[in-house]
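Exercise 7b. Backbone tokens:
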């Protein structure tokens, strides 16, 4: 979860939009994965990009379940703490797919595969439960997102700048 402090509010920008608050900085208390996603969609005949930072897979999926005729994922990255990526520091990696498996107590286990083939499991201790991870449900696939973008006649995620 992200949190803010009033001292980081940027009130001058808020005068331009009554629907949004603007912040110079946010912070996090938890060491859990989160996402950095750029969505592109059509608005009044123009392609518009927006960057979102959902804190959970559930919030990410809500974003991605928009109208696929006018929405596509331009870029999706996962931000992982050391306990998940085992690299000794926080990392931000382009994400190729997200899968869901259920543990022995029906607890959710998320399996993230990066574009370069690294596999992260969250929670990390779930790696010991290989039998649970064997049965997975695909939640997001970059390959599928590219197909949907081409069907909708939008530039594919790897075809950035085609509309410029």
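Sequence design result:
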């Amino acid at each position: 979860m992200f949190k803010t402090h009033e001292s980081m509010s940027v009130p001058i920008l808020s005068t331009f939009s009554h629907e949004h608050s603007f912040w110079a900085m946010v912070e996090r208390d938890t060491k859990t994965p989160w996402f950095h996603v750029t969505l592109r969609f059509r608005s009044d005949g123009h392609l518009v990009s927006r960057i979102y930072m959902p804190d959970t897979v559930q919030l990410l999926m809500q974003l991605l379940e928009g109208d696929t005729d006018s929405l596509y994922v331009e870029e999706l990255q996962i931000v992982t703490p050391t306990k998940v990526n085992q690299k000794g520091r926080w990392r931000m990696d382009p994400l190729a797919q997200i899968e869901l498996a259920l543990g022995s107590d029906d607890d959710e286990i998320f399996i993230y595969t990066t574009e370069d083939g690294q596999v992260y499991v969250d929670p990390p201790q779930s790696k010991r439960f290989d039998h649970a991870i064997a049965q997975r449900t695909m939640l997001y696939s970059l390959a599928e997102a590219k197909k949907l973008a081409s069907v909708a006649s939008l530039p594919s995620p790897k075809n950035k700048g085609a509309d410029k």
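Instructor comment: The radius of gyration is 18 Å. Residues 31-151 form one domain.
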